[in-house]
Specification:
Elements: H1 2-19, E1 35-36, E2 46-48, H2 50-58, H3 62-74, E3 84-90, E4 94-99, H4 102-114, E5 128-132, H5 144-162, E6 166-173, H6 178-194, H7 209-223, H8 232-257, E7 264-267, H9 275-286, E8 289-292, E9 295-298, E10 309-312, H10 320-332, E11 338-344, H11 351-360, E12 368-373, E13 376-380, E14 383-385, H12 397-404, H13 406-414, E15 422-425, H14 437-456, E16 459-460, E17 470-471, H15 477-489, H16 502-516, H17 518-528, H18 532-551, H19 559-583
Length: 591
């Protein structure tokens, strides 16, 4: 990155100036050097305020220190010719830099040389992350809130991989307990009714009939009325199991359409065979549980929670916390470095209890990260959309995908900080304009492809008296192959692509600066667990390219200029493809 190169130059200049006694009493480099983007363009492309931080150590004015550092920057042997076109000191002690063409050209060379790997980071150091998300009950269709967790988790997994982590993605299947019993009662009642038993009442507290009826229909299509001949309890269990299987398959297929892929589907029911009892035994042996009011309690308050938590109710059935503890005991046994879980905000009250439960198991709860996501609000024409046409109670993910498409769903559910609510405008998501960021970014990629095709394909000369006559391509396929080799071989190729007119050069430079910042965006996004930063970054790239396209002709009469600018378009296309790959949105070549 250009910022890294400049940082090294400034650091060396500070050390050299200090060595020569030009920085007062300062020896060495007692403060870090930070390179920043000025808020105002007239302050330069990049700025450094190290002199301000050195002033208290040197007992000297920051302006004087900055001027001394500038002398050493000017004479730094590692500063390439035309890397910095101008730098100056500005009150109260900043050093402002205007970039030349050398580092910009090198940045473009690096992008094309690295291709699909450009931006990949090593901060993950190959550490293993187990990422659990969605984890919905198999009791009905996934709603738009599940969709947010699905997209966020999928984007985070892609980002982790791009940043150098090993990632396993897991769906924790809540396939036992009261919600499954509730599904069973409703599915059995519907099954009997649909098979001709008219006197069967639907449970008053059951799931809405419309939300599970089409799943029961699939059970009937496969098994007809064969379960009616079974004893009632066995029949209900079979129908519940079959309905649960159909629902789970529906969820899997929908998530696949959304580009969400899991390495493992972990069933909660498997924990109740031995693992839950193992956890209860560990708590008993460690003195972390006690009996009271006929129930078994975890001494969670001693372990950092605000109160103790029930592990087994007086009726004899274990709680969600007991199952979650057993699940995490299994997770920790797999030897990952970090365990990341994505929950909805409604699980906020369970975080402290789970940390206490993990600590009582003798495991380090700090290896566990829980990310809470906020709600999704849907609107249409300024009015909130609250009800599903099919499910009746919540808006289903499949309905939204059918209306606006998977790409728009992924973009709009990915772009926000997970801690902020999302306001998803369904009409905006269908627009084909800059106001729709998802479309605008994809269009920028497609435009890059179109420019490259224009240079490589025969075209109709509209200036000719007979425009139907096709002209030869601007460059041949053989020349294009050579161009791509030259882009990787020499940064000097790109110099001809920058304009002498400073007004135009400013926008050309702005595009390259944002393209070359992609590695830093990846690293920051991974550290903050916010892939949405990259969605917003992609919009900024698209905006910078639009301005570049408006002021810079790509195919010109000058072969060297055309060659260089085609390389800039190719670099833009590559960065857009890389970032769209992380957020899981397709990069179309035509729109």
């Amino acid at each position: 990155m250009i910022e890294d190169k400049l940082k090294q130059i400034v650091e060396q200049s500070v050390l050299d100036a200090a060595r020569d006694g030009k920085l007062g009493s300062v020896t060495g480099s007692p403060v870090p050097v930070l390179i920043e983007r000025p808020r105002l363009p007239e302050h330069g492309d990049l700025a450094c305020g190290v002199a301000l931080k050195l002033a208290s150590h040197a007992k000297t004015s920051p302006l004087k220190l900055a001027e001394a550092i500038c002398e050493y920057i000017k004479n730094n042997s590692h500063l390439e010719k035309d890397a910095i076109s101008r730098f100056q000191v500005a009150a109260p002690g900043f050093i402002n830099f205007q970039l030349g063409k050398a580092w910009l050209s090198s940045a473009l060379q690096e992008i094309i040389r690295e291709g699909e790997s450009f931006g990949r980071a090593t901060i993950g150091a190959n550490k293993r992350i187990l990422l659990e998300y969605v984890s919905a009950n198999p009791t009905g269709e996934l709603h738009i809130g599940h969709g947010r967790n699905a997209v966020f988790g999928s984007c985070l997994a892609n980002l982790f991989k791009f940043a150098g982590y090993q990632v396993e993605q897991e769906f924790y299947l809540n396939d036992t307990g009261e919600q499954i019993n509730k599904l069973g009662y409703g599915a059995w009642a519907l099954y009997q009714t649909k098979c001709g038993r008219a006197d069967i009442a639907y449970p008053e507290d059951g799931y809405p009939q419309d939300s599970i009826a089409h799943f029961v229909d699939q059970v009937i299509a496969k098994h007809k009325d064969e379960f009616l001949s079974l004893p009632a309890e066995e029949a209900m269990e079979r129908v519940a199991q079959e309905t649960k299987t159909v629902i789970l398959e529906d969820q899997k297929q929908l998530l696949e359409k959304l580009g969400v892929h899991f390495d493992r589907w972990f069933a909660e029911s498997s924990l109740h065979e031995t693992k839950v009892q193992e956890v209860l035994d560990i708590y008993l042996e460690g003195g972390f549980s006690y009996e009271a009011e006929g129930a078994l309690w975890l001494k969670a308050k001693e372990l950092g929670d605000e109160r103790d938590r029930v592990l087994r109710k007086s009726a004899g059935n274990t709680t969600y916390l007991a199952a979650d503890a057993a699940y995490h005991l299994d997770k920790y046994s797999r030897g990952h470095d970090t365990y990341v879980t994505i929950w909805g905000a409604d699980h906020h009250g369970q975080v402290a209890g789970l940390r206490a439960a993990v600590r009582a198991l003798g495991k380090d709860p700090d290896m566990m990260e829980i990310i809470l996501t906020q709600i999704v609000n849907l609107s249409r024409d300024g009015q909130m959309v609250r009800m599903s046409k099919r499910a009746g109670t919540v808006v289903t993910l499949s309905e939204v995908m059918e209306e606006v498409g998977a790409d728009a769903v992924r973009y709009y559910l990915a772009e926000s900080n997970p801690q902020n609510p999302i306001n998803f405008d369904l009409e905006l998501a269908k627009q084909t304009s800059k106001e729709n960021p998802a479309f605008y970014i994809q269009y920028a990629h497609a435009r890059c492809c179109a420019v490259l095709r224009r240079a490589l394909e025969p075209y109709a000369n509209t200036q000719s008296e007979t425009p139907t006559v096709m002209e030869n391509p601007v460059i041949s396929a053989e020349n294009w192959q050579q161009y791509q080799h030259d882009y990787k071989d020499s940064a000097d190729v790109f110099t001809a692509g920058f304009d002498h007119d400073q007004t135009i050069f400013i926008h050309q430079k702005a595009l390259v600066m944002i393209l070359q910042s992609f590695p830093n965006e990846v690293q920051e996004s991974a550290l903050l667990r916010q892939p949405g930063r990259l969605a917003r970054y992609a919009f900024d790239v698209a905006t910078a390219f639009q301005k570049y396209y408006e002021i810079s002709r790509v195919i010109t009469e000058d072969p060297a200029e055309t060659k260089a600018r085609l390389g800039i378009v190719l670099a833009t296309k590559q960065v857009l493809a890389n970032v769209l790959g992380i957020i899981g949105v397709t990069a179309p070549e035509r729109m």
